[in-house]
Specification:
This protein is α+β, with helices and mostly antiparallel strands. The chain has a domain at about 1-65. Helix content is about 45%, strand content about 15%. It contains seven helices and four strands; from the N terminus they run αααβαβαββαα. It has helices spanning about 5-15, 25-35, 50-60, 80-95, 105-115, 130-135, 145-150, and strands at about 65-70, 100-105, 115-120, 125-130. A two-stranded parallel sheet has the order 1-2. A two-stranded antiparallel sheet has the order 3-4. α4 (about 80-95) links the parallel β1 (about 65-70) and β2 (about 100-105).
Length: about 160
Amino acid sequence: FYDHLTVRENLRFFGRLSGLRRPDRRISEVLDFLDFGGVEDRRVGGFSKGMRQRIGIAQAILHAPTVLFLDEPTSGLDPEGVRGLRDTISRLNSEFGMTVFMNTHLLSEVTKTCTSIGILRNGALVHDGTIAETRDAYPGDDSLEALYFALESAPIR
């Protein structure tokens, strides 16, 4: 983001880059959805990591994608920010039908946020399924960490 611009100005800039001719209405919808609480006209430079993360999500959903990729979205967030992000991801799916792919090393976050899981090893998929299917396929230890290590030697599909 451009620290010297406000949230709204940044979103307008990136909205136009995404091909939105008149992004202001969509920007207002996104800001309302993410509940920016009146800070949209403040400069980005002084915002926390959590607020910057929300601005990034706002930028990513401006053009109403059907699929959203988030890379380590909870990194650097405080517990309140993590909870808010989980809620946002859930709402993106339930209210807009958006599929959200989330890359994370925090396996505990997967069970709290995701409905399906894919595990990669050396860039190849070694497991995919719903959380319930995964637990059924690997009974015993209920933790995803145990599953991850059990799959360490699994054949690559």
